[in-house]
Specification:
heterotrimer; A mainly alpha; B mainly alpha; C alpha/beta; B: two-stranded antiparallel sheet; C: alpha/beta; Rossmann fold; six-stranded mixed β-sheet; nucleotide-binding (chain C); ATP hydrolysis activity (chain C); BCA_ABC_TP_C (chain C); P-loop_NTPase (chain C); ABC transporter ATP-binding protein (chain C)
């Protein structure tokens, strides 16, 4: 039982990064109803940028992170401009396939440039464990969680109170009305891609620190996406909870069934939810105008 | 194909059929004598191509005609391959039972994954098929006692009338027969009441209901039929490679077939064939090209071959979706019209 | 043929239909008219089974079909067109029309895939019927092999009518058949609708904005205003009814919030 609690806490702690990824997915969805299947690859690419800046070009940690962030934002804007904007108004599965294809491109390019092997990025998180009462939390996981939570809370506050955040919510509620009120919806969409790039960059660097860096680092975002979609794409809060649920589930199934089950846990959860509540956990049945 | 051609040909379909029969006949004759004139490597390659055509037909039925996006096609092909292998190893079934059985098994498992989410619209099916991709691959790797894990299973050659189909030429004829039959079948389905209903579901599902088309039923039909095609392709692949292991059925293969359908042209049977041909040739061309480049600059190209493929598949998907969503089939049609106008 | 009895329909507290009854007599053209927001489209969606009314009944040829979904109603002989054209892109005109006969055909995947004689016969017969009965009547022969999205608006409306017809419906519902058409196209469409009724003795129920069309071809007219029936009778009777005149001219004074 003690084990169970310990694993649960560690799991929820690693869910912090997932929540950050989930936030990146949902802001883009809010602005343009696009499901970004390339989120994981954007995040993985950011981590490689960080690696290149700090290891290959021996920049400091802060400078290296700034370079990685700038690179991530540039790539996100490029994707939005070249591949997403031309798809406005097209069927959603076509857009999904485009993002899926972009993910494949990034994975391939990274594989060609940096190779398939594990790389080690400079340690930015202390390894010394954190004790919560008599529960032991690995140092990197705990610190990554703390950083992720701070960023998530900061971004949510920013989206709630800033002008850009208000414009985003207006556009999400009704793009045409927002447009007629002078809100440039295309700029809002680009803006959400920047937000996604930021969350992707931070989560990528954190993730590469907790684990190691490989071209498959981004696969985890597919799990997050699966659970996020099931949770319903409407509420940011629900989506964040989904992030923590994945972290917890992975840890607990890892304990009870063996670590190899971790990778498929989110999908088993997804299928079970579909069986019990086919419209998703918080989803509502949509009515199409005819 | 007929639906597609009727939509594009301004002359009467009857005339098109006559012309088409002639070309089809000619093509068949060429394919039949190919092993006598072409190098063995070509024949091996043609076999692989045939299997890919069948699998692409399957994904095209789901995605192209019915609008059901599946990210788990490779896993359903895997189900077919394992079924055929296990049917031979444990039950001693001949290939002409094992391969249809592979199709049926893939259809059953496909429907099992798809059923809960076919009832509703939206992304749930995408998630369910992604789940199928990862979960089935997990089963292939970890159900040691049945699948023999990462090592996989060895398959004995198919035999027919005492002849063992143990080289690329012999299995080529089996695959050729399967491709012709499966293509004929899908063409027939599409130009029937069923095919029209599938397209109706894709285009406007509420309107389809008003015409009496039961949406869930036809989505299920599309999903079962598409998975059946995947399973048959998998069964053939088991006899073609004579081994089955989990590595063959990863996410990259699903991306491969997605690209094939998109590049060929969604909702066109001719497109599925063109897409499969293009996508099967492409990695070979890439390899040849990369080897040349590698030789010139003196580095080991084998390392980047897999990621290079991944990049190119993705690039093709994205650029066709943006620039020519109706794919090679549309380009083909345009070229033909230009040619005829002269 | 079609009896719609006392339909009540509310959307989140807003009454869209308040006790509407319509009777479409066999072989006649019945029209439902009313100003914008009168509930015409809601009524049609109740009749085709997309909306479940709070109370009331829909009967087709005496059978209560209130509990059935849209596709089951199609199997009982109900077909309809849509206000904003709902044709299937990526198919020819002919294939679109063939879809209308879905409920009259039987082929499943296997008989279709193997092209069994039953499927072949069925498709041939359908082809002949369409060529003989529909293509000629609606003057579509020159475009039947065209891609449907390449057609002009008026022609697309006609294809939709053709698709609704090949089902050989007991009741044909037309949702604003001349909306957005020019005068010439309107005249043609009116002629086609009367031709259909005269040749096939089809029962037609239509909703329409355009008074001249309705008055020209209808046998019976029902007027809705803010979800309530305010008049019904022959075109001449309705035209002379003071309530109707008031609804059309004085509609602006009514609270607009009731609009559905």
């Amino acid at each position: 039982m003690n084990f169970f609690i310990e694993y649960s806490i560690v799991g929820i702690a690693s869910g912090g990064i997932y929540a950050l990824i989930a936030l990146g997915i949902i802001v883009i969805f809010k602005s343009s109803k696009t499901f970004n299947f390339a989120m994981g690859e954007m995040m993985m690419l950011s981590a490689y940028f960080f690696y290149a800046a700090t290891v290959t070009y021996s920049l400091g940690l802060v400078a290296g992170f700034c370079v990685a962030l700038a690179g991530s934002i540039a790539i996100a804007l490029l994707i939005e401009r070249v591949a997403i904007r031309p798809m406005l108004g097209r069927p959603f599965i076509a857009v999904v396939m485009v993002t899926f294809g972009i993910g494949s491109i990034i994975r391939g390019v990274v594989g060609m440039v940096w190779g398939p092997n594990d790389l080690q990025i400079p340690a930015i998180l202390s390894r010394s464990p954190v004790m919560l009462g008599d529960i032991f939390i690995p140092g990197k996981t705990a610190r990554a969680f703390a950083i992720a939570v701070v960023i998530v809370v900061g971004l949510i506050a920013y989206l709630r109170y800033s002008r850009a955040g208000v414009a985003l919510r207006a556009a999400a509620a009704d793009a045409i009305t927002a447009y007629s009120m002078g809100i440039d919806v295309r700029r809002i969409i680009a803006f959400t891609w920047i937000i996604a790039a930021i969350t992707g960059c931070i989560s990528g660097v954190l993730m590469a620190n907790v684990n190691t860096l490989t071209p498959h680092l981004g696969m985890v975002a597919l799990n997050v996406l699966a659970v996020v979609i099931l949770g319903g794409m409407n509420s940011i809060g629900g989506v964040l909870i989904a992030g923590f649920i994945i972290g917890w589930l992975e840890a607990v199934t890892g304990l009870m069934l063996g670590t190899e089950y971790r990778e498929i846990t989110p999908y088993i959860l997804a299928l079970m939810v579909l069986l019990v509540r086919p419209t998703g956990l918080f989803g509502t049945k949509e009515i199409e105008r005819i | 194909m007929v639906s597609y051609v009727e939509t594009t040909a301004l002359r009467s379909p009857a005339m098109w059929f006559t012309a088409n029969r002639l070309t089809t006949g000619l093509l068949l004759v060429i394919l039949l004598i190919l092993p006598f004139v072409a190098p063995r490597y070509w024949i091996y390659f043609a076999g692989l191509l045939g299997i890919n055509i069948i699998a692409t037909h399957g994904l095209n039925i789901m995605m192209g005609y019915t609008g059901l996006l599946s990210l788990g096609h490779a896993a359903f092909i895997g189900v077919g391959a394992y079924t055929a292998a296990l049917a031979q190893i444990h039950l001693g079934l001949p290939f002409w039972i094992a391969i249809p059985l592979a199709g049926v098994m893939a259809a059953v498992i496909g429907v099992g994954f798809g059923l809960p989410s076919l009832r509703i619209r939206g992304l749930y099916l995408v998630i369910a098929t992604l789940a199928a991709q990862f979960i089935l691959n997990f089963v292939f790797v970890h159900w040691q006692s049945v699948t023999n894990g990462d090592v996989g299973l060895t398959v004995q050659p198919a035999t027919i009338f005492g002849v063992s189909l143990n080289n690329e030429t012999r299995i080529y004829y089996l695959i050729l027969f399967a491709v012709v039959f499966m293509t004929w079948f899908v063409v027939n389905v599409i130009r029937s009441r069923v095919g029209r209903a599938l397209i109706a579901v894709r285009e406007r599902d509420l309107t389809a209901q008003v015409l009496g088309v039961e949406i869930v039923k036809y989505k299920l039909i599309a999903f079962a039929l598409g998975s059946f095609y995947a399973g048959v392709a998998g069964g053939l692949l088991a006899y073609f490679n004579r081994f089955v292991n989990p590595e063959q059925f990863g996410l990259l293969l699903s991306v491969f077939f997605l690209s094939a359908v998109i590049v060929g042209g969604m909702g066109s049977t001719l497109g599925a064939i063109l897409g499969a041909v293009f996508m099967t040739l492409l990695p070979e061309l890439l390899r040849e090209g990369a080897l040349q480049v590698g030789d010139t600059f003196g580095f080991d190209i084998a390392l980047i071959l897999v990621p290079l493929r991944e990049t190119v598949f993705g690039l093709l998907m994205v650029s066709f979706l943006i620039l020519e969503p109706r794919g090679l089939a549309q380009l083909w049609k345009r070229a033909k019209q230009k040619f005829e106008r002269r | 043929m079609l009896d719609v009895e006392n339909i009540q329909l509310t959307f989140g507290g807003v009454k869209a239909l308040a006790g509407v009854s319509v009777h479409a007599a066999t072989g006649k053209i019945t029209a439902v008219i009313g100003p914008n927001g009168a509930g015409k489209t809601s009524l049609f969606n109740v009749i085709s089974g997309f909306y479940k009314p709070n109370s009331g009944q829909v009967r087709l040829a005496g059978e209560d079909i209130s509990a059935l979904g849209p596709h089951a109603r199609a199997y009982r002989g109900m077909s309809r067109t849509f206000q904003n054209i709902a044709l299937f892109h990526g198919m020819t005109v002919l294939d679109n029309i063939k879809l209308g006969a879905h409920t009259n055909l039987k082929s499943g995947v296997l008989s279709a895939g193997f092209r069994l004689p039953s499927t072949r016969r069925e498709e041939d017969r359908l082809d002949r019927e369409i060529q003989r009965d529909v293509i000629g009547l609606l003057e579509l022969d020159h475009v039947q092999h065209h891609q449907v999205e390449d057609l002009a608006y008026g022609l697309q409306k006609r294809v939709e009518l053709a698709r609704a017809l090949v089902m050989k419906p007991k009741i044909l519902l037309l949702d604003e058949p001349v909306a957005g058409m020019n005068r010439e196209e309107k005249r043609e469409m009116s002629r086609f609708v009367t031709d259909v009724r005269n040749n096939w003795n089809t029962t037609v129920l239509l909703i329409e904005h355009d008074m001249s069309m309705v008055m020209g071809i209808s046998d019976h007219v029902v007027v809705l205003s803010f979800g309530k029936p305010i008049a019904s009778g022959t075109p001449d009777e309705v035209r002379a009814n003071p309530d109707v005149i008031k609804a059309y001219l004085g509609g602006a004074e009514e609270p607009a919030a009731n609009a559905a």
